[in-house]
Design a protein that fits this description.
It is built from eleven helices and two strands. A two-stranded antiparallel sheet has the order 1-2. By secondary structure, the protein is mainly alpha-helical. Pfam families: GntR, TetR_N.
Amino acid sequence: MGVLEQPAAPAPAPYLRIAAELRARIASGEIRAGEKVPSVRQIAQEWGIATATAGKVLSVLRAEGLVHAVPGVGTVVGTAAGPPPGRPDGAPRTLTRDHIVRTAVALADVHGAAALSMRALAAELGVPPMALYRHVPGKGELVALMADAAFAECGLTGRAPAGWRGRLEAAARHQWARYRRHPWLAGAGLPPAAAGLMEWAMAPALRRGLEPAAVARTAAAVTGYVRGMAVSLADGPDAAALDAAFAFGLARLLDGLAVYVEQHTGGT
């Protein structure tokens, strides 16, 4: 009888293979402690994979304690001495919902929404995944809290416009600024803070006699425009060009709405 050939071992998943390559770069000193590792977008481009798969690569390295996210910087290699900054060796961490949400926002800002998971968040915080569920029921609720926090970071600046158009433009630009700072936010639901801002913006039109249903449709048109433009932010387009396109489109939208409001109220 002939000797049966053993079946070849299955190839590792692409994200595990890429994680191994980055792990080897770190071990060899090619990427040293404190230096940035490739971002989700860079990994996707270099290896020709989807951003969701690229996010898994960094999740693996974070779970192993090799890297951690630094807001405003990116994902960096940790030190051999211990955990990421702000997490003292051996000291227990007291989790709060606020701290969990702020850390999740930082992770999403650096790696994108695709890389955010309860397991990755737990690894970043240095706690077991089940510890998170004492504070947040699940990822859906977490994303909603993140959106609330992102929109509540700061309010409108400067003197509030008196008319509905000035207010609506200010509200739209404020929302755009939030999306620019947090590109993942376009994929989250609209939080109450954003809805309240639009109510404030349309109050002058309501006082002038615009019917509540028309007020709601007008606010929804502007909110939908801003959010629709923001979806492109996650793809990393030219920011200046996108800002210019946003401003142009917003002005034209407001021009059209001004005609509608004038026809239904007798003035702006």
